[in-house]
Amino acid sequence: MGIDVKCTNVKLWKNEHETKNGGKFFTYSISISRKTKDGAYKHKGLKVLPKEALPEEIPNGATCDIDGFMTLEVYTGRDGEVVNPMLYANRIMFKDMDVPSRDEDFGDSFEQLDEDVPF
């Protein structure tokens, strides 16, 4: 049994981290919220793990649609085992930029093209 998730028009937050040897990598999250009785909002970030690496030029807060499923992030922290819910993204489609997800279906052969191939 799995929990499939389809997110529409969500903002994908990008967080840059440095490795021990000076490199960098990114983690991603979306935010979920609920309005309280006093009118304020409570927010919680939910980590997103893309199936494939996303292009670096994606801006922080880019609007997108995500198809994926819920899973767990499990690691050993300072106080022992840490278990958090996480969204595994099979597909991310960006709405406000010209960068498609890398798992976009472009077809698997030249026979599917309607025009002549220039080579």
CATH architecture: Beta Barrel
- CATH homologous superfamily designation: Nucleic acid-binding proteins
CATH class placement: Mainly Beta
Helix content: under 10%
Question: Key terms for this structure?
Answer:
five-stranded mixed beta barrel, OB fold (Dihydrolipoamide Acetyltransferase, E2P), 119 residues, single chain, 0% helix, mainly beta
What would a concise description of this structure say?
It is built from no helices and five strands. It has strands at residues 4-18, 24-35, 41-50, 62-77, 80-94.
What does this structure look like?
The protein has strands at residues 4-18, 24-35, 41-50, 62-77, 80-94. It is mainly beta and 119 residues long. It has one domain (4-103): Nucleic acid-binding proteins (OB fold (Dihydrolipoamide Acetyltransferase, E2P)), CATH 2.40.50. A five-stranded mixed barrel has the order 1-2-3-5-4.
Helices and strands, with pairings:
Layout: E1 4-18, E2 24-35, E3 41-50, E4 62-77, E5 80-94
Parallel strand pairs: 3-5
Antiparallel strand pairs: 1-2, 1-4, 2-3, 4-5
